[in-house]
Amino acid sequence: MMTVPDLQRRKRDKKKLIVVTAYDALFARLLEQAGIEAMLVGDSLGVVVQGKSNTLSVTMEDMLYHTKLVTGAAQQSLVIGDMPFMSYQASKEDALRNAGRFLQAGAHAVKLEGGRAMADRIQAMTEVGIPVFGHLGMTPQSVNQYGGYKVQGKSAERAQTLVSDAKALEEAGAVAIVLEAMPASLAKTMTEQLTIPTIGIGAGPHCDGQVLVLYDLLGLFDEFVPKFVKPYAHLRADALQALRRYKEEVEQGKFPSESESYH
Hints:
By secondary structure, the protein is of the alpha/beta class. The chain has 2 domains: about 5-230, Phosphoenolpyruvate-binding domains (TIM Barrel); about 235-263, no CATH class. It has 11 helices and 8 strands. The termini are far apart.
């Protein structure tokens, strides 16, 4: 089974970390069968599962429900619970309590967004044995502050701030940091300067690992496809074709046939 120390060892051994989001038991089993060793129960479920325009309305109850589905099915993978908006920002006490609820639901670690301002939360969690993943760059919970989903760290000043934030998270005890939507050169610099793994999503090829949203990877979600997404299948098109065939066969009396009927 993949553990936090295993994950950190991968960086030292220069072996890429592969992470995919998961939201239910069926896909958690599929991911394990494919050899995926780390799953993020992402608050991205607000968009790809719940159909919202952003992740801000996702609740702790939503996240804990989906975390239980994934951890109930995953036997070997490291499962990371994504802390939703306002589950950790208000106070260290909130952060600790809610992070603990993720571990009680079966997660092995949690992830939260934000830079230096979140360092005290990460330190408090680390001190009580809760592994924490940081998240820098385009942090979706700050979408209103950024005025949309925009690449971060393009200016020298902003890039330096992100490097400083990354070091602060590492010093606070973060076990890894997700780097989202930033120039590849900046992600390379951060990866080289940190001793903990970086996991990229729209941050170029130099990170220690990569993560993609499951529905994007499989071509199931096409309402908004970021530049950094590569669909490895086109399941939405396949599903549409199957549903239309089913509808047509029922209308034409072809389904159910003798072979689908009991006698």
